[in-house]
Amino acid sequence: VNREIAMTRDRPEPPKKRTLTVRVTQRPAQLSDPRIRTFAPVVSKPIAGAKVEVRMGRSARPLASGTTDSGGYYRVDLEPGSYSVKATASGFNPGGTAVTISTQNVTREIQLTPTQTPFRPQDTDRPRLDPARKLIPPNKLGPIRITPLPKRERR
Questions:
Q1: Three-class SS state of 6
Q2: CA 66 to CA 78: how far, in whole Å?
Q3: What angle do CA 93, 74, 46 make, to 5 degrees?
Q4: How far apart (Å, rounded) are the C-alpha atoms in residues 139 and 114?
Q5: Which of 91, 129, 98 is nearest to 113 (CA)?
Q6: Do 18 and 101 touch, CB atoms closer than 8 A?
Q7: Contact 104/16 with Cβ under 8 angstroms?
Q8: Alpha-carbon span 36 to 6, nearest angstrom
Q9: Whole-angstrom Cα distance, residue 117 to residue 53?
């Protein structure tokens, strides 16, 4: 029995796994006019269903992969080391970050930008002219008659 206890003491203990928490969010829209200031806090919207891949360093094969929950979170337990994390979602450009896990749990946020250009109000303020539509010159409208309202309707 003592011999078995001695053998278990000689074996090195495997490193304890730590939790990596990744939150995938939509990058907040930037205001195009620098004169406009906002005093409200800018909140990132979580992206549910984003695909997250965790790789050891620059390895081609992912160690772990999955999708984010409704809050935009993905969690995985990993041994200490250096990892690269990549997130992709439909309608967004891919994003990623490098993570080093040592003795504590790690949380990282990856912000993805939409693939489409954001709405810009100044682009839609201008009226669009239809080249097929012709304007009637003012002299072709004919005389304009202005008649006063009867007294009983002037209130």
A1: helix
A2: 14
A3: 55
A4: 51
A5: 91
A6: yes
A7: no
A8: 72
A9: 26
Tokens 């009226």: give the residue: 127
Which stretches in the chain have pLDDT values below 50? 1, 123, 125
Which residue's structure tokens are 């997250």?
Answer: 52
**Closest to 99 (Cα-Cα) out of 113, 80, 71:** 80
Look at residue 75 in the predicted model and tell me its pLDDT.
Answer: 95
Q: Tell me the C-alpha distance between 12 and 66, whole Å.
A: 31
Token output for 140: 């072709």
**61 and 83 Cβ atoms separated by less than 8 Å:** no
Tokens of 54: 């965790």
What are the DSSP calls for 13-25, one per residue? PPPPPEEEEEEEE
Four-CA torsion 85, 89, 95, 98, nearest 10 degrees: -10
State percent of the chain over pLDDT 70: 60
One-character DSSP codes across 24-60: EEEPPPPPS-TT----SPP-PEE-TT-EEEEEETT-S
